[in-house]
Amino acid sequence: MSKKVGDEITVGKRVDPSFILLDEMCGRLEEVTDKLDKLVAFNRFYGPMTRIFKKDLQYQYATISAGGSGRIWYMVNPQPDALIGIIVQVGNSWFENTHLDWLIDGEPKKVEYVIGQIDNPKEYLRGIPFERDVEWVAYNSDDVAHTFEVLCDGFFVPKSLYQKIVG
After folding, report:
1. Are 137 and 103 in contact (CB under 8 A)?
2. Residues 6+ apart with CB under 8 A from 85
């Protein structure tokens, strides 16, 4: 244990346990303060440049009848000339005898599995960019109706910033 200025610790004496606990608490508070300072600095730097997906659009669902199909999730870039959307989390439901089409700017990707759970979505650290829109469509070939869910979260950045980052 290190001796600090003003401490009354001497060799041969027993250390008061409350001193040790107080020292540990002070250290933890310093760590938390550092993390908060970094978060505030991050928000000051990125805040004006990014806009997160609106909460009511992040999670969408729809019931698709047996033998039917329909849109489950949809988002349009509010300013396609000025912004690029970046998807960073995806979760979806899936059922046997069904599949989903995940369309990014009109390019479909067939999904026949759960990418990530709704309450534990898959993280895409590098992000998935899109310019115009993102859509999820479910196709139900089963003989019962299913309620499909999709969670898609991310943010928008100015195209100029995106170009500087990715080249």
Report:
1. yes
2. 53, 75, 77, 129, 130, 131, 134, 154, 155, 156
CB-CB contact of 66 with 143 (8 Å)? yes
Here the tokens at position 14 are 């027993």
Q: Is 28 helix (H, G, I), strand (E, B) or coil?
A: helix
The CA–CA distances, whole Å, from 21 to 7, 16, 98 equal 14, 9, 57
Choice among 2-6, 96-100, 135-139, 151-155 with the minimum mean pLDDT: 2-6
Residue 156's SS3 state is: strand
Strands 146-158 and 51-52: antiparallel
What is the value of pTM for the model shown?
A: 0.69
pLDDT one-digit tens code per residue, 31-58: 777 766 655 554 454 444 456 777 777 8
Hey, how many other C-beta atoms are within 10 angstroms of the C-beta on 44?
Answer: 9
Structure token pair of residue 53: 């997906």
Give the residue carrying structure tokens 């299913």: 146
Token pair 């310019």 is found at 131
- The CA dihedral of 74, 79, 83, 87, to the nearest 10 degrees, is -10
